[in-house]
TrEMBL record:
NCBIfam families: CM_P2, PRK11898.1. Gene3D superfamilies: 3.30.70.260, Chorismate mutase, Periplasmic binding protein-like II. Residues 2-98 form the Chorismate mutase domain. Catalyzes the Claisen rearrangement of chorismate to prephenate and the decarboxylation/dehydration of prephenate to phenylpyruvate. It comes from Pokkaliibacter plantistimulans. PROSITE patterns: ACT (PS51671), CHORISMATE_MUT_2 (PS51168), PREPHENATE_DEHYDR_2 (PS00858), PREPHENATE_DEHYDR_3 (PS51171). The keyword Lyase applies. This is Bifunctional chorismate mutase/prephenate dehydratase. It comes from the Bacteria. Residues 1-28 form a coiled coil. Keywords: Amino-acid biosynthesis, Aromatic amino acid biosynthesis, Coiled coil, Cytoplasm, Isomerase, Lyase, Multifunctional enzyme, Phenylalanine biosynthesis. SUPFAM superfamilies: ACT-like, Chorismate mutase II, Periplasmic binding protein-like II. It catalyses: chorismate = prephenate; prephenate + H(+) = 3-phenylpyruvate + CO2 + H2O.
Length: 368
């Protein structure tokens, strides 16, 4: 019978051989991606315009197939994340994707950008949501990532309001599980903390935990969790920050307490914004903006055609129209792509009954 060392040596040789095959296949995929870029460049109708290299619907279909055919032992989402990084690296060979996100570095929005585009994307921090929209509109970057809603704190109104004046389209969404940590400089004693920095939304998400553990400690709202981590790192002992893992690594902070959010299922949804329309991935969402007439039954006239067409509405938000007293604009998310007949039929009917209907985009539902 073979010894333990002999058995391990044989298995390691087997792993080395498998790794060699994986490496060869990854390079073959990368070469194929380069040929795709060459074909797109050769068939441009306008040489002044850059071809569209990134296709959200295609990537969503690939990742879904990866998860569907996975037989383990690796978790399907873990395998999909590996393929996301392979696709990100291959896409960078065609043309590196520049992405603006709500910064500074270390925010959950940056984490969402990396989750969606992979670590080969070039991520550019912006100080405000307005700046993310402007950077994409000016074509200084290809895409932008902005927060749209949190499962416990609700919608981000500032993002919704930007769509009123912008012609950018939604090309994707990212769902990110949010884990908040209390971070401190090394060797800081938690009992001596006198100030806690964080974004106001994160402070709200951890309010019950803070009331229980640090009821008399000053809580200071800042522009982002990353800024909170920066301040904690700069100001030293007696100061803590509530932020995520990326901010902890970036600013050299330690975890005093982990996962301090009041609701364990706390998550945030982010939108990907760009210029191009997205084709159907067979599992899509469509977001619209509706400026209704100020009359009785206005909301009913908006919703009834979708009900009759069998279209599922997944979210409705209301914002002031800013055009006269008591006027409202409705932001609606619905299941399906605008090119699908039931959705297209309902949109056409609603359009005839309202002041304005603006399709913000049809895009793949979040895969990971």
């Amino acid at each position: 019978m073979a010894t333990e060392q002999e058995q391990l040596a044989k298995l390691r040789d087997e792993i080395d051989e498998i790794d060699r095959h994986i490496h060869e296949l990854i390079n073959q995929r990368a070469q194929c991606a380069q040929r795709v870029a060459e074909v797109k460049m050769a068939h441009r109708t306008d040489v002044t315009e850059e071809p569209v290299f990134y296709r959200p619907e295609r990537e969503a279909q690939v990742l879904r197939k990866v998860m569907e055919r996975n037989k383990g032992p690796l978790d399907s989402e873990e395998v999909a994340r590996l393929f996301r990084e392979i696709m990100s690296a291959c896409l960078a060979l065609e043309r590196p994707t520049r992405v603006a996100f709500l910064g500074p570095e270390g925010t959950f929005t940056q984490q969402a950008a990396l989750k969606h585009f992979g670590h080969s994307a070039v991520c550019v921090p912006m100080p405000t949501i307005d700046d993310v929209f402007r950077e994409v509109e000016a074509k200084a970057v290809k895409y932008g990532v902005v927060p749209i809603e949190n499962s416990t704190e609700g919608v981000v109104h500032h993002t919704l309001d930007n769509f009123r004046s912008s012609e950018l389209k939604i090309s994707g969404e990212v769902e990110l599980r949010i884990h908040q940590h209390l971070l401190v400089k090394p060797d800081t004693e938690p009992s001596r903390i006198t100030r806690i920095y964080s974004h106001q939304q994160s402070l709200a998400q951890c309010r019950l935990w803070l009331d229980s553990r640090f009821p008399n400690v000053e809580r200071i709202a800042v522009s982002s969790n990353a800024e909170a981590a920066r301040r904690a790192a700069a100001e030293g002992e007696h100061v803590a920050a509530i932020a995520g893992e990326m901010a902890a690594k970036l600013y050299g902070l330690e975890h005093a307490f982990n996962n301090i959010e009041d609701h364990p299922d706390n998550s945030t949804r982010f939108l990907i914004i760009g210029h191009e329309s997205v084709g159907s991935s067979q599992r899509d969402k469509t977001s619209i903006l509706v400026n209704a007439r100020n009359q009785p039954g206005a909301l009913y006239h908006i919703l009834e055609p979708f009900h009759r067409a069998g279209v599922d509405l997944t979210r409705i938000e209301t914002r002031p129209a800013n055009a006269g007293a008591w006027g409202y604009v409705f932001y609606i998310d619905l299941a399906g792509h605008q090119d699908e007949e039931p959705v297209n039929q309902a949109l056409s009917e609603v359009s005839s009954k309202v002041v304005e209907l603006k399709v913000l985009g049809s895009y793949p539902q979040a895969v990971l």
